[in-house]
Fold this sequence. Notes:
By secondary structure, the chain is of the alpha+beta class. The chain has one domain (about 5-329): Endonuclease/exonuclease/phosphatase (Deoxyribonuclease I, Chain A, 4-Layer Sandwich). The protein contains 6 helices and 18 strands. The strands form 5 sheets. The chain has a 6-stranded mixed β-sheet, with helices on one face. It is globular. The two termini are about 20 Å apart.
Amino acid sequence: MSIPSSAFEQYTIAFYNLENLFDIHRDPNILDRDYTVTGRNQWNTSRYNAKLKNLSDAIAKIGFERTGNPPAIIGVAEVENARVLQDLVSQPKLATFNYKFVHYNSPDERGIDVALLYRPSVFELEESKAVHVHVETEPGVVDATRDILYVKGVLKGMPLHIYVNHWPSRRDGYESTNHKRVAVARQLMAQIDKIDPDKERLQQELPLERSKNVVIIGDFNDDPDNDSVLKELVPHGFSNVTEPLRKYHRGSLSHNFKWNLFDQILVSYSLHNDVPEALYFHEADIFDDIMLRNWKGKYRGQPSRTFVGNRYHGGYSDHFPVYAIFRRN
């Protein structure tokens, strides 16, 4: 007879690409003209509020069936600024949980950043910073892209180092952009080695106060078997806990009717432990609930987007969230 999950102390860490969460105001410093009242998408208060409601409804349900609570921590991508994050966490479905957030403006030309939302009742924030990455389209030509967000804190007694990522896109083709994502992966690992020079993240038996637990989350614009993830991250003390979720018929996004798993979670070996009172990785999943899917038509089963081409669809995002459950030993 199996033990019900409610018998365990459990917490969810998730990641969700929110697909162009812009406010309706023009910012002359970024390319946000499409997301204004007079822009191509006719982005008005009604559409903005509908997007906020949809996203908050989705976030509140990530991992809920397993833990009875919304995520303790959730990394997000494609947010314009702190204003949209404040509007998001103020939505009725999230306001009860008093979510706080960490956000820095990045040099991305479109003005889309990564951020981290967390419930202060379970996660104590200690430190954060934006990690700038240097990427070149070709030698000498800098490609302004998203910073990596680093957050250090304690999840119910468990020290964590969290890195939130949104790596350069494949818009110009996989082969011609692969070097960008590999470059970001190497710079990420250099940052991780700075806080963990002795590779203690590989140790599964260190006492709680000495543990170096690292969680890497994000939209990598690569699949688990691509070089940037498989060769540049995994061999350095990480397990890609979302890798087994990628199937022919399942992923976190669909492009040209092919599923990809660009949204991933990697955890250090130290989070596969049986140390007394420590948290350990239990399971991962894609939150691809029917509420987030198109119900009919050509794109049935795929993520329900805000726009399909130039047509307003009123959905959630072109990505599904991914999440990992951590249990107490």
